[in-house]
Amino acid sequence: DGNNAVFFTIGERFIAANGKARQFVRHKAGDGIVLANDKVAPVEELERGTHIKLIDAVIDAGLALCAQKSVDEISKAVKEAAEVPAAASQPVASLDNEVLFNAALAIRGAEICGYDFNAGSMVDYLQAHDVDQKAFTAKVEPYLVIANGILSGGDKRFCKKDFLPKFGPEGFGFVSER
Questions:
Q1: Are 58 and 1 in contact (CB under 8 A)?
Q2: Which end of the chain is more exposed for a tag (fewer CB within 10 A), N or C?
Q3: What is the DSSP code (8-state) at residue 75?
């Protein structure tokens, strides 16, 4: 927003991505961010809870992205954030977070790039990684927000260069060109 407040957006929704942006989270009715058309849009905050380490790592990768990093680099950062360190003193995010993040990248990327989405392939992938539909539905929203922030911020060159090789027929098989 020009003041170092960073937001992820999905349609008309604004989600605070850093501490500066959280000052816009509604503390009372009417708070939010003023848009170019002078409309005040409410600002939401991601549920951070048990996913804080993962979300922070992905937000950092997304903010640094600016069309400079590949989808593989971001996925690697997510996997590293989801791995349990040898001497973990408290619980950290489980590896199913990598699966959820890949699913979210595929869902949002297909929409942003204009590719056809293969829901059957996605369901097979989730089941192969022991993520059932109920867990997926309950947990996926923060990942969709993050994926949207990462993918919508860059130019469209990544669609064929990075996204299609990883998530297309030669990769996961989640998307295909129309």
A1: no
A2: C
A3: H
Rg (CA), the chain: 17
Contact between 26 and 117 (Cβ < 8 Å): no
pLDDT score, position 70: 59
Question: 174 phi and psi, to 5 degrees?
Answer: -80, -25
b/e code 127-142 from CB counts within 10 Å (16+ = b): eeeebeeeebeebbeb
* 143 in Cβ contact with 100 (< 8 Å): yes
3-state secondary structure of 24: coil
Cα angle: 166, vertex 60, 136; to 5 degrees: 55
Give every residue of the chain whose pLDDT is below 70, as ranges: 1-4, 26-30, 47-95, 153-155
Q: Which two tokens stand for residue 66?
A: 């600016």
Which residue stretches of the chain are H helix? 19-22, 52-65, 71-82, 96-113, 119-128, 133-139, 141-152, 157-158, 164-167
**Long-range contacts from 1-6, C-beta under 8 angstroms, 24+ separation:** 1/33, 5/33, 6/63
